[in-house]
Amino acid sequence: MENEISGKTRLAGLYALPARHSFSPIMHTTAFQATGVDAVYLSFDVQPGRLGESIQAIRDLEMLGVNLSMPHKMEAVKHMDELSQAARLIGAINTIVNQDGKLIGHITDGIGCMESLKQNKIDIIGKRMTILGAGGAATAIITQAAIDGVAAIDVFNIKDDFYQKIEPKLAMIAEETNCQIQLHDLADEKQLADALATSSLLVNATNIGMAPNIDQMPIPDEKVLRKDLPVFDVIYHPGETKLLKAAKATGATAVNGLGMLLFQGAAAFKLWTGKEMPVDQIQPLLENEIKK
């Protein structure tokens, strides 16, 4: 039975542009109802010029907090009273928690990835991993992996203008977390093969494999895959990319990004409420929404 809205009902939400396509409202409102939290979750299209006022509204309206998506993840940082370690290292946030008017910025994408790996019995702590891409999702994963105790991370990205910008950030993350992080050119096939030969996990954090590139793989040769190299792809639509199909063909564990989506939301939910999200109940809802 659904909770009734009362005079004490709290509000959480998503600030993005556009925001209406998000799965977050059904995820969080269902979780609020399931756990007896008197709150609702709504999506808000927030124009960049109104972000500061919209963040102040979290205090004024005594909201639980909000999630942030593009284009606000970096700009919102300057409006926070405090940042989590990962958010400070990355310079971006996707979750704001309102603690009696004090706004704390968090980034839960990396937490979502690490929790998904754990759920799939992939143990990477103290080991070496390889990640393809160095954008927002990749940086969140790299940072959380380093904080959690992954020993070494080989990062491969195309050698463009962004490559030069990300290098010092990765160096800063490595220094603070004592994780060995090296940036390489994605076009260097030998370097990639060498890295994968000593890795215990391959992560694809590029968009290669999703529409319209569903017939492409982010690696040049599937021969670098092997049975004891789990593969995690941040893409969740399609549910099985060409990379994941190739990994499964070798007998390796192959995991898509749905769990990352689910568990990053669960991390935000816990930050707001102190309660565990009922992920077994939420996962089929997400799967159905993605199919629509």
Task: Characterise this structure.
- With 292 residues, the protein is an alpha/beta fold.
- The protein contains ten helices and twelve strands.
- The chain has helices at 24-35, 51-60, 85-90, 109-119, 136-148, 161-177, 189-197, 242-249, 258-273, 279-291; strands at residues 10-16, 39-45, 65-68, 82-83, 95-99, 102-106, 128-132, 152-157, 180-185, 202-204, 231-233, 254-255.
- The strands form two sheets. It has a six-stranded mixed β-sheet with strand order 2-1-3-5-6-4, sandwiched between helices. A six-stranded parallel β-sheet has the order 9-8-7-10-11-12, with helices on both faces.
- Helix 1 packs antiparallel against helix 10 and helix 4 (109-119) packs across helix 9.
- The longest helix is centred in the middle third of the chain and has 17 residues, at 161-177.
- The radius of gyration is 19 Å and the shape is globular.
- The two termini are 25 Å apart.
State the secondary-structure class: alpha/beta
Q: Detail the poorly predicted runs.
A: none
Classify the helix fraction into a percent range. 25-40%
Characterize the overall form: globular
Distance between the termini: 25 Å
User: Order of strands across the widest beta sheet?
Assistant: 2-1-3-5-6-4
Order of helices and strands: EHEHEEHEEHEHEHEHEEHEHH
Radius of gyration: 19 Å
Oligomer: single chain
Number of helices: 10
Mean pLDDT: 96
Beta-strand percentage range: 15-25%
Binding site for NADP(+): 133-137, 234, 257
GO biological process, one term: amino acid biosynthetic process
Domain Shikimate dehydrogenase substrate binding N-terminal: 15-96
Catalytic activity: shikimate + NADP(+) = 3-dehydroshikimate + NADPH + H(+); L-quinate + NAD(+) = 3-dehydroquinate + NADH + H(+); shikimate + NAD(+) = 3-dehydroshikimate + NADH + H(+)
